[in-house]
Amino acid sequence: MLYVLCAVVLSALLAYYHIVIFAFVVGLLYAVMNLGIVTYVVSHPLLTLGWASAYFLVGAGWSIAKWWFAETKRVAEVKRRFTNDRVRFGRSPKDMTLEQWLEQHKTDPRDHVTDMLFWIGFWPINAVYTLINDPFRRLCRRIYQELQGVYQRITDRVWKNAIR
Predict the structure, then answer these.
(1) Is residue 55 within 8 Å of 63, Cβ to Cβ?
(2) Which pLDDT value is given to residue 3?
(3) How far apart are alpha carbons 163 and 129 in whole angstroms?
(4) Which of 31, 100, 157, 163 has the fewest Cβ atoms surrounding its Cβ within 10 A?
């Protein structure tokens, strides 16, 4: 059962990347067949090399910005866990300093190479997705926080009536 659950979650995560790669390949094939890309590349090799270099330089810059956003979010989450006295990894944060706690939970960038390569290679798609999705998610989270008391009162009332 656990294997099936893991397979479903993994396939859902990978589906996003496969859809993006498929769309990129279809778009590339369309560009090559209908827009005269091959003729342009052959007749302007240096300009093509310049554009390709610029594309990957912008992708590298985007990957740095995206990693900065991700790490800033992770540090805030680790600090929040520390201040909430949560027990994690078999140790209580109370017997550690904040510096020790942060060092123990520090991210290894080598564990995220696939993400970084995706950000570099497919930065236009990822940038649009991030710039649209992040504010939308923040708005939804804010609405939830405003309604959290309402949700709790509903839960309390329903459970109180269930006891009667």
Answers:
(1) no
(2) 55
(3) 47
(4) 163
